[in-house]
User: Fold ATP synthase protein I from Fontibacillus solani.
Amino acid sequence: MDDLGSIVTAVTRITFLSLSALLFGWAIFPEYRPVFVGLILGLAVGLLYVRFLSIKVRQLVQLVVSQEQKKFNFGFITRICLVFITVMVATKFEQVSTIAVITGLFIPQLMTIPVSIVVGIRNKS
Assistant:
């Protein structure tokens, strides 16, 4: 369970580093600003998505450990609505690239795979 915290922390750090690089790119390349804004928005909401899901997984683990017979909700509707609102904002404003937002939404989630491999290798040795 401690690995989950280190994975989410590493993904958060990498995402913040990516966000700062994208903000720097937004300032330097004005012709690509809609793409940079879309990626920034997508990464920010994607990071919220990952962190919310990690909280739900921790709650599930606590529920299993306590052996209570309780119904559990992963917050699927909440996460889908978060993504849906983000895509709606991207389609509403011309200054935001919708494709970049959708791409940015997936990046933090896909980043958890290589980060978890690296964390697993580090914890083994």
User: Anything to note?
Assistant: The mean pLDDT is 91. Residues 56 and 74 are 6 Å apart (CA to CA).
